[in-house]
Design brief:
heterodimer, A: 302 residues, mainly alpha, Tetracycline Repressor, domain 2, 2 domains, 75% helix, 0% strand, B: 43 residues, 1 helix, rod-shaped
């Protein structure tokens, strides 16, 4: 077989590893986990193949949203140390490739969800992608310090989608799960943005510590942790979850509020000395994993 | 900017073609199992 010579204006195609990196696999893990927990906490039998496909669709949709986010924010990513080596700012991929990949993956995930689960789950999945890309990335992120608050809703959809994939409806418990992640997002991201604020400032992103100062951000972190704790414990007194979840949620939320209290009283301006903020950020990830694990344990053991 | 040489382009294309084949294969298998699962749910 003879090979056809390549045209000289052909640019280097993107490596598949860079396409994978475009989906932000590390961020995806928490999204997939909360989606899986929503699915496992829902009443009714879950067919393993359909359950697997629903979680796969949530992962693919998260990947699509991540790819479209990087497509839109390539200029910002180039200005931040943390993100400068991503495929687009590093020049390893064209923006058009990222756009086509993101849109294709998103459409595919919604169609597959509709095929495997139901229209409601597919519709909420589509809304979550559009919300993350259009409302958070395009509209809010560069314009307001409240970007994380409203944008946090995008990350709160997965348990709702998992639940809807099993039951075909949305009741009080999945709405509370949505509320927990929605209220968890601001303290989680603001704790991070406190010790990487110079990166955000360099990129011109109006994150709260850049716009409103450190003390104000610390106050907001603590204030948001209170309704978050309330939403986390609420399923127990409302009779939507049992004592395994209730006791776990109470203990985990108490520790969260204590750590947020330490952030509130911290006065340092030096990122290297922000141990309280770093502890809260690390604990917030553990908190969400542990809380949702407790919910599934409560449903399956009780 | 220097043009990438043909060998590098061919290598990238080969890598992507392999991954595409694997993913398409996995998708066909998944679609088969989804059809079986949907059918058994409606029995």
């Amino acid at each position: 077989m003879t090979s056809v010579p390549l045209p000289h204006d052909q640019s280097l195609p993107a490596d598949w590893r860079d396409l994978l990196a475009l989906t932000k696999p590390r961020v995806m893990s928490l999204v997939v986990f909360t989606g899986l927990c929503g699915l496992l906490a829902a009443p009714g039998p879950v067919h393993p193949v359909l359950g697997f496909t629903a979680v796969l669709c949530i992962a693919l949709a998260a990947g699509a949203a991540g790819a479209l986010n990087q497509w839109y924010e390539a200029d910002l990513d180039a200005k931040m140390k943390r993100t400068a080596n991503r495929p687009l700012p590093a020049g390893r991929m064209s923006r058009q490739t990222a756009l086509h990949f993101g849109v294709g993956l998103g459409v595919f995930s919604v169609i597959l969800m509709d095929l495997a689960a139901n229209h409601l789950a597919a519709a909420v999945l589509a809304i979550s992608i559009l919300f993350y890309v259009l409302v958070y990335t395009v509209w809010l992120k560069r314009r307001t310090a409240q970007n994380i608050v409203i944008g946090g809703a995008a990350g709160a959809f997965p348990p709702l989608i998992g639940w809807a994939a099993v039951t075909g409806d949305v009741t009080m418990l999945p709405i509370l799960l949505f509320a927990i992640i929605f209220l968890w997002t601001p303290p989680h991201f603001w704790a991070l943005s406190l010790f990487v604020r110079s990166d955000y400032a360099a990129a011109g992103i109006p994150m709260l510590p850049v716009v409103a100062g450190l003390d104000n951000t610390r106050r907001q972190v603590f204030l948001y942790s209170l309704p978050m704790a309330g939403a986390a414990i609420a399923p127990w007194p409302l009779g939507l979850a049992g004592p395994i979840y209730g006791v776990s949620a109470a203990i985990l939320s108490f520790v969260f509020v204590v750590l947020a209290g330490r952030v509130l009283t911290n006065r340092t301006t030096e990122p290297s000395a922000m141990a309280a903020e770093k502890h809260l950020f690390a604990y917030s990830i553990f908190y969400l994993f542990a809380l949702f694990t407790a919910l599934v344990a409560d449903r399956w053991i009780a | 900017m220097p043009l990438p040489d043909d060998e590098l382009i061919r290598g990238r294309q080969r890598g992507r073609a392999r991954v595409t084949v694997l993913l398409l294969g996995a998708f066909v298998v998944l679609l088969f199992f989804i059809t079986i699962a949907q059918a058994s749910r409606n029995w």
